[in-house]
Structure formats: C-alpha cells, structure tokens
Amino acid sequence: FALEVANDLPTAVTVAGNNQDFLQDMVSYFHVNSFRIYTSHDLLGVQLGGVVKNIFAVAAGIADGLGF
C-alpha cells in the first residue's frame, strides 16, 4: 500500500483487533482524504483475506510476466 499512499491515490486498509479504543485511535491518527482505515474484530478473517490477496497478486504478476 505504500506506493499508493505515497502517490496520494485512494487506498483502503483494514485493521483488526479486540480493543475498540485502539482501533478507533488508528482510524483517527491515519485517516486522510485518500487513505481510509476500516476496523474489524474478525482477526482470522482479516489475516486470511490478506493471505488470499497475496496469492492472487503473485499469480497475477506471474501471468502478466508471461504475457497473458
């Protein structure tokens, strides 16, 4: 996400945790017009979503590199 944030492109992330006050602090500290933080209490779901996203990203990069 760093490249998108550095280029001021619209970016969204999810932060998960059990402490609602901490989650709200993260939202208030980092929220700007082009960067949104969404909160969740589903730790496992957020972790699995990140893993699946990375698998698809690697596969897309390989496909692109092979000219597909």
Q: Summarize this, please?
A:
The protein has helices spanning 2-6, 20-30, 43-65, and strands at residues 11-16, 35-40.
Report on the structure:
The chain has 68 residues and is α+β, with helices and mostly antiparallel strands. It contains three helices and two strands, in the order H-E-H-E-H. The protein has helices spanning 2-6, 20-30, 43-65, and strands at residues 11-16, 35-40. The chain has a two-stranded parallel ribbon with strand order 1-2.
Question: What series of H and E elements makes up the topology?
Answer: HEHEH
Arithmetic mean pLDDT:
93
What is the terminal separation in angstroms?
25 Å
**Overall 3D shape:** flat
- How many β-strand stretches? 2
What composes the largest sheet? 2 strands, parallel
Number of helices: 3
Instruction: Report strand order across the widest sheet.
Output: 1-2
The structural class is alpha+beta
User: What percent of residues are in strands?
Assistant: 15-25%
**Estimated radius of gyration:** 15 Å
- The parts where pLDDT drops under 50 for at least 5 residues are none
* Helix share, percent: 55-70%
Short descriptors:
68 residues, alpha+beta, two-stranded parallel ribbon, 3 helices
Draw up the topology in text.
Layout: H1 2-6, E1 11-16, H2 20-30, E2 35-40, H3 43-65
Parallel strand pairs: 1-2
